[in-house]
Amino acid sequence: MAVCIKIAAGESLSRVFLQKGAAVERYDIVIEEGGKAEITFVTLPEGEICNDICVKFAGRNASCVLRGLYITRGSGRASYNITMNHDVPDCYSNQLFKGLLYDASRADFYGLVKVPAYCIGTEAYQANHNLLLSEDARVRTLPQLEIYADDVKCSHGATIGRLNEDELFYMQSRGISRETARRLQQMAFAAEILDTLPEDIQAQALEYIPN
Amino acid sequence: MLQIKDLHASVADREILKGINLSIGRGEVHAIMGPNGAGKSTLSGVLAGKSAYSVTSGSVTYNGKDLLEMSPEERSWAGVFLGFQYPTEIPGVTNAAFLKAAVAEHRKSKGLPDLSAAELMRLFREKMAVVEMDKSFLSRGVNVGFSGGEKKRNEIFQMAVLEPQLALLDETDSGLDVDALRIVGNGINSLRTADNSFVVITHYQRLLDYIVPDFIHVLYDGRIIKSAGKELALEIEEKGYDWIIKEAENK
């Protein structure tokens, strides 16, 4: 399925895409001068869900916030291929993608931020964080910046981790059972995105986190 | 209440505890002192069930039960509390959610119903007063961005909420300024009853001014080399450990 989103000058749009089952999706997002987009992907695959996401700025002072929460289980697979084209100066983008991976599931994150030499005043941030909750879960993450301009603020980062044993022990030492402690940590990890979701989608995402 | 017999424990195949014998009765306060690297933190970690330590021999009996067989959370339900030397930060979990979960599981283990939100808040308020904490602590992530003093006060706050029978306080006084020490010291003191016991691990006499020990033990190289009354702390403050170590070596 292909989704085209155009945000006219000065307009704002906030959307949440809930993805389940298996799918191949393409999103083309164009933001005109002063426009603001805030788009969240909640990806709960049964099979494979592939996302191709392309953002273009078509005027100055536009902003784009992309968020993603993927919770993969069984042999499920989530992938994102994101291109953030800063073709206009003075635009802002911020990407935050977080994943919880169980069983033998897998996720691929490929994100590219492009800033040509004339696009000064660009602010672009990109982060991808992953929590592996089984031995067999796998993640491949490749956040990339391609920057040719000098006067810009950009950062990117990726982490792949497991539940923190020190935190688990601290909670257990206060009488919180290991299972509850593990769940609290997973919720804490996801909270940054979960908290921004409407209630019904939040509930569906929570259902995907095993007890 | 607690009997430790010939306890040996190691970390990554290095033996740290080399035969600890210690008996703690109801209502007693024991201080454990000793130079760095003697095994003080290992002892408290072993008693709380930290998995990095492996017990190689010996036994620990707590209220007639084998403590070493219990999971860390079971030890907590049974009334054991460890005040951490370096309290762990848990980003994303608020102090309130953390303690709510802890209180709920403690009550469940005793077959008691959950507290209502209002009852829980009343409990938190009452216990926060013990360590002069204000309400904003509750909505902050567990120990995240807390100063050293705030972290230690948070430990005592948690202890006040959980009302343990046996509190192991690992260098709760380290890194505290005079005011924080007074708050923490008074907090601990106010939680003393005839029924609960304390093991206070410290380098300094100053915490012992607030919580006066019945016994002082000197731990050195994985063993308790001297046990005496409270006056020993002053002697250590004045003369250090060397004379005690020499005395033990000459025996």
Describe the structure.
- The complex is a heterodimer of chains A (about 210) and B (about 250).
- With about 210 residues, chain A is an alpha/beta fold.
- Chain A has one domain (about 1-165).
- Chain A contains three helices and ten strands, in the order E-E-E-E-E-E-E-E-E-E-H-H-H.
- In chain A, strands 1, 2, 3, 4, 5, 6, 7, 8, 9 and 10 form a ten-stranded parallel sheet that branches.
- Chain A starts with a strand and ends with a helix.
- Chain B is of the alpha/beta class and about 250 residues long.
- Chain B has one domain (about 1-250): Rossmann fold.
- Helices cover about 35% and strands about 30% of the residues of chain B.
- Chain B has a six-stranded mixed sheet with strand order 6-9-10-3-11-12, sandwiched between helices.
- In chain B, helix 4 packs across helix 5 (about 150-160) and helix 5 (about 150-160) runs parallel beside helix 6 (about 180-190).
- The longest helix of chain B has 15 residues, at about 95-110.
- The chains are: A alpha/beta (about 210), B alpha/beta (about 250).
- The interface of A and B includes residues 165, 166, 170, 188 and 191 of A.
